[in-house]
Chromosome partition protein Smc
Amino acid sequence: MYLKSLEIQGFKSFANKIDFKFHNGITGIVGPNGSGKSNVGDAVRWVLGEQSARQLRGSNMQDVIFSGTENRKPLGFASVSITLDNADHKLPVDYEEVTVSRRVYRSGESEYRLNGTSCRLKDIQEIFYDTGIGKEGYSIIGQGQIEKILSGRPEDRRELFDEAAGIVKFKRRKAAAVKKLEDERANLVRVNDILSELQ
Ligand code: ATP
């Protein structure tokens, strides 16, 4: 699996549609200060489901939409698509190529797509569990992140090891099953209460 392309439109400093093609090996993005290099990394985080505006260096989610310049009016939406080669089926879907897209409008309305089909954020998160690529993965190392990991709480560091060991999806499924059991237990208590009222 590898990153094939990234298409950005209306996201942060990228008003026009821009299509980055990546090839095997190392790709460097160079440019003067403030030219938008870090915005490319932010676009990758965002399309993979980042929900925290702070992680994207903004104060709210609408901050990712191109806010205009002296010569250009603000845009009404931001859109990012990322395409990964999945010939080795590391991502648990049948497709040989996986494109994840996210779009947000100034009204706050937003949508995710998986290979062109509308889907939930949860669907996107699930295909990236244990691949190191998801929002909590380690494939994007931001400025200052190494220091944060080294000086962070052991519980937080453990999450990285869990992801690398491939057990995150099982932990998430266990948590969902435990929650369902608790809900069912609460339902049973209610049913018993009603039964004893009727007797
Ligand atoms: P440095 O080398 O200093 O780290 P950089 O090349 O990584 O800089 P970025 O931080 O990616 O630059 O981009 C910052 C630029 O993005 C600023 O000029 C900022 O005005 C612009 N920018 C951020 N959000 C928006 C937005 N919503 N609309 C328009 N421009 C934006």
